[in-house]
Amino acid sequence: MQVTIKDVAREANVAPSTVSRVIANSPRISQKTKERVRQAMEELGYYPNVHARSLANRTTQAIGLVMPSAATKTLQNPFFSEVIRGISTKAHQNGYSLYMTTGVSEEEVYEGVVSMVQGRRVDGVVVLYSRTDDKVVQFLQDSKFPFVVVGKPFSDSSHVTYVDTDNYLAGREVTKYLHQLGHECIAFVGGSQDLAVTQERVGGYKTALMEEGIPIHDSYIVSAPFMTTGGADAVKRLMSLEHPPTAVVVSDDMMALGVMSTLNEMEISVPNQMAVVSFNNLFIAEFSSPPLTSVEINIFGLGFEATNCLIEQINEEATPYGKRVIVPHYLVVRQSCGGTAK
Amino acid sequence: MQVTIKDVAREANVAPSTVSRVIANSPRISQKTKERVRQAMEELGYYPNVHARSLANRTTQAIGLVMPSAATKTLQNPFFSEVIRGISTKAHQNGYSLYMTTGVSEEEVYEGVVSMVQGRRVDGVVVLYSRTDDKVVQFLQDSKFPFVVVGKPFSDSSHVTYVDTDNYLAGREVTKYLHQLGHECIAFVGGSQDLAVTQERVGGYKTALMEEGIPIHDSYIVSAPFMTTGGADAVKRLMSLEHPPTAVVVSDDMMALGVMSTLNEMEISVPNQMAVVSFNNLFIAEFSSPPLTSVEINIFGLGFEATNCLIEQINEEATPYGKRVIVPHYLVVRQSCGGTAK
DNA sequence: TATTTTCGTGCAAACGATTGCATTAGTGGT
DNA sequence: ACCACTAATGCAATCGTTTGCACGAAAATA
Fold it and tell me: Which of A103, A142, B73, B119 shows the smallest number of beta carbons within 10 Å?
């Protein structure tokens, strides 16, 4: 049987309410009783029942994590482990614990979120993806429940709090970087087009080209569902063009790995015959052959900051609506673009 | 304000208890009332308060996940996303949700587990690592709380339920495989030595050598904390030996990536001058250059099975103590060992 | 028709905390 | 010695469910 607050109360010769106040460290209890109660708690090995507690004070000290549906292999991207690490760290610091939900279909994920929110299982939610047109975000907004999005939510971003990288800027910067290295024929390989990230990074890429006076060729912009082909066909398509590119911006390290692998098979050498730059600076970027030049976006920080905003919202310290946090990024130069070879 | 069971009861003209029984789909309630109550629930948008529910029936429908302390970068290994995906899938199928705990120190992780268990926040726990001499496992065992370990727990494995790969066998097999390809000088590069996995895989490696009549050189067995150096020094040490190896068994794909990267820098070609084989068959194995020959251990399955066992335990359908599930593995041949070059 | 079964519901007591309000004891001022 | 006031603690209602038991009505049996 569980040790309850009553047992502690009996042991310490006080009322349950007193014990409760000791737990909350209320100033209304004398130092002496506190000592006594704490000792009793220790002796009996008392731990408060979280459900009773949540029920009584209508707070859970837990935050919910919404992941993309597990059916897709998206989850395999180390990106997620890393955001979660950030979230988890901040959460832990503030005494929150984490509650996860996923489903195999989009519908299941949605149901999970609803029951988590309506069932009062969590105090707030962080949404780990942003897709165009998403029911989950819509629902959270409608129910005025505290939440924050990692990544830019498609619509109405002015009303939702989110933390993100300036992907547009990053896309522009890397493209310019390639141009500075002397490349004129620069292609873009991206993942799923309905992800906000991809769109932004392409946007930056295009802007850079324009600013540098390089014409934009649609045939230079290819997107491929990553986890299936690894971007092999994307690369092949590019290389079979009349004027194949000499450099390529890839929207993500994972994908870059696939691209480099294909290039390797085709016996096109990186960086000599093809420069590759990508985003996220996952730790594998460091260990690929050749090591990848990639944009460090501080994924951990993304998660950490998101949680920070969420907690502010929960405590109602936040501005009523739509805070927007941009986590800074920077280019980590390795060897996949030549230039500053190590 | 939340919609409670009483509101539904009033709306449907029944007692709260009846509503409760409808939720549980008790056969004692007539079809007609069930309809009526369900409709009322629908209309009011009723969702049961999970805490009240847990409090009353002493069950949470949640399972706890214990991760290694977040301080280490271990978490970055895609291995974890993948086990979690397995766990999450099975959990979801059975109406369980997931509850995570981590801490920056080992002590914090322990405290997290204790309060999660004693606070009755979860019905069972799956432990995602196995280290020699671990307080967490000890605690769970002492408190007779349902739990299962992914990986082999160091001590007393006869009393704890765990699911694992036969790492010993796998280690033996890959070593023999290299020998069949004609290699005589085979080294082993492993991660942290106090992980059960490493120990087992080395064990298999040694056995294979013995069985093939190849002497075991201690200098051929190196271990390196992965996330720091990427195994670079391990490789350098091996290559500076009088008789450097011609093949190497690496304990994990991540590490193999580091090893290959170092070899690449040293201009030692894989597979021509050095064959590399590793374990886990993470998706990056497919996209490295050259693609890695690796042992597929079905990480997803590991998580899935573990959860299965856990749920059995929770429902007390399990054999009282120490079930042991071995998930089968097989070698995926790619190009890092030469031989069957694609 | 009287009596027992069965069936469907409702009552009220848990579950283990929190918290507003009442109560008591202790202090100091007059 | 009396009163007012503060400080420390206890009482009891509450949070939203579940569940054992009691109860009445209808159906089955004699």
Answer: A142
User: By CA distance, what is A104's nearest residue in B?
Assistant: B89
DSSP code string of B7-32: HHHHHHTS-HHHHHHHHTT-TTS-HH
Q: Which nucleotide is nearest to B12 (CA to C1')?
A: C9
Cβ atoms < 10 Å from Cβ of A174: 26
pLDDT band at B342 (very low <50, low <70, confident <90, very high): very low
Cβ–Cβ under 8 Å, residues B64 and B125 = yes
Tell me which of B130 and B260 has the higher pLDDT: B260
Q: Which residues of chain A have a pLDDT value below 70?
A: 1, 70-75, 130-133, 155-157, 226-230, 318-321, 339-342
| Distances in whole angstroms, Cα of residue A270 to Cα of each of A160, A244, B151 | 42, 14, 39
Please state the φ and ψ torsions of residue B115, each to the nearest 5 degrees.
-70, -25
Q: What burial letters (b/e) apply to A96-134, b meaning 16+ CB within 10 Å?
A: bbbbbbbbeebebbbebbbbbbbbbbbbbbbbbbbbeeb
Residue A342: its pLDDT value, please?
37
Q: How does B173-194 read in b/e, with b if 16+ C-beta sit within 10 Å? A: bbbbbbbebebebbbbbbbbee
Can you give the distance from the CA of residue A144 to the C1' of nucleotide D20 in angstroms? 40
Q: How far apart, in whole angstroms, are the C-alpha atoms of residue B40 and residue A118?
A: 16
- Nearest to A235, CA basis, from A227, A252, A247: A247
For residue B149, count other CB atoms closer than 10 A to its CB. Answer: 27
Using a 7 Å cut-off to protein CB atoms, list the covered nucleotides of chain C: 7-12, 14-20
pLDDT-derived band at B157, boundaries 50, 70, 90: low
B330: enclosing H helix or E strand: strand B330-332
Answer whether B295's CB lies under 8 Å from B174's CB: yes
Band of pLDDT at residue B70, cut at 50, 70 and 90: low
Q: Which two tokens stand for residue B266?
A: 């040293």
Q: Nearest residue (Cα to C1') for C12?
A: B17
Q: Does the nearest atom of strand D lie within 7 Å of B50's Cβ?
A: no
Contact call for residues B73 and B227 (beta carbons, < 8 A): yes
Number of helices followed by number of strands (H, E) in chain A:
14, 12
Nucleotides, chain D, CB distance < 7 Å: 7-12, 14-20
Distance from CA of B159 to the nearest CA of A (A): 23
**Domains of chain B (ranges, CATH numbers):** 5-48 (1.10.260.40), 62-165+300-328 (3.40.50.2300), 167-296 (3.40.50.2300)
Report the predicted TM-score, pTM, of the whole model to 2 decimal places: 0.91
Tell me which chain A residue has its CA closest to the CA of residue B117.
A47
